Fold Nucleoside-diphosphate-sugar epimerase.
Amino acid sequence: MTDTTPRRALVVGVTGIVGQNLAALLADRGWEVFGLSRSGGAPDPRVRPVRADLADPDGLREALAEVRPAFVAITAWTRMDTEADNIRVNAAAVRNVLGALADAGSVEHVALMTGLKHYLGPFEAYATGVMADTPFREEEPRLTTPNFYYAQEDELFAAAERGGFTWSVHRSHTVFGFATGNAMNMVLTIGAYAAICKELGRPFVFPGSATQWNSVTDVTDADLLSEQMLWASEHGRNEAFNTANGDVFRWRWLWPQIAAFFDLPWEGFEGAPRTLVESMAGAEDVWRRIAERHGLVEPDLGRVASWWHTDGDLGRDIEVLTDMNKSRKAGFTASRDTRDSFFHYIARYREAKILP
């Protein structure tokens, strides 16, 4: 490459809620962007798609042989039935990607996205053991429970030592962003829920716990996370950072505003969680009817809403809040207004004809 050649970046998981936003940011800033996914899709036409399976080391070597990225972002993971399988599969994914890139020697920095299960524990033991007090801080020791985030970090650290590149780890909370077909998309899930409530004449019921209704919490904007990943490649090397918007809120404050936006009567927490998995059971035909009437691009509700994930986030019986001081002190001071972030992405989903 010459001095005038754009620097190359590889986004692993480019079709995901963070991968899509990060790839767009990199392209905006003049990078030559390659996007790796199992499907070989790339939602942004500026991104060069790479099709490969993270579980296939030989296939990855072949697919990535000519990419030679300087910056690598790993934003993908695969949910398995047990944490032992999560560790096996997701640690191997990090190992396989970085192993496939090792011979070229081009990698300068790798950013790994994880999350607050670093502090809360894995799905099998979620928020059940001894945890640090909130707000969670990066210097807290690892929990004793096996966790695939720890296994991914260890693979990253070992590869960085062998390859001589720097790394950063980004521990996000619930991500607000723009993507479809993603298993963890709260904004789109809530938007679809509101549309179905409207269609059926139902009130907009908060599905979560009393703790989440009443306690202070935060979330992560996908654009903000993307900015932090790119910033860390220059200014936050060999560090782990929490990633949250920088403001806090209570769902009892935001929920009525979402209901008003969709012109729906609402109900807050009353006695016990009223989960989306239960209340939205069998809603697939309702969504198809909505999609047909409004000319929406995705009639398959399973590719729009992730009831289980939003139930998990809103059903927690503990306060979940992150500390952002480490990132701020290091020089990353960007922030987002969570209310503005939510409605910004709702507007994008409407413009894209994904929500009515």
Q: What stands out?
A: The longest helix spans residues 83-102. Residues 118 and 174 are 13 Å apart (CA to CA).
